[in-house]
Design brief:
Blueprint: E1 2-5, H1 6-11, H2 13-21, E2 26-30, E3 33-38, H3 70-77
């Protein structure tokens, strides 16, 4: 693992970020003493499963669904 001093890290920050993005970890030191370790982030895992239609065939909608409870509603509201 390579070590860079603070001045060098500030001067070449863009290049060092590219190295980290490619998977290379490195240390940043102050007066020769390691202060921080820079490591690449792992991308979050994406959910590849398809949610649309995941319960297809599992639910039955009654033919009178749009009229269910119609009598009770009419009684409550006097329609």
């Amino acid at each position: 693992m390579h070590t860079y001093n603070i001045h060098e890290a500030k001067t070449h920050l863009s290049r060092l970020i590219e190295l980290a993005a490619k998977g290379e970890s490195f240390l940043i030191a102050k007066a020769g003493k390691p202060m921080v370790m820079v490591v690449p982030l792992t991308p979050p895992e994406t959910d590849t499963s398809c949610r649309i239609g995941f319960m297809a065939g599992e639910i039955q909608v009654p033919d009178d669904f749009d009229r269910m409870g119609q009598k009770e509603i009419e009684e409550m509201f006097g329609v």
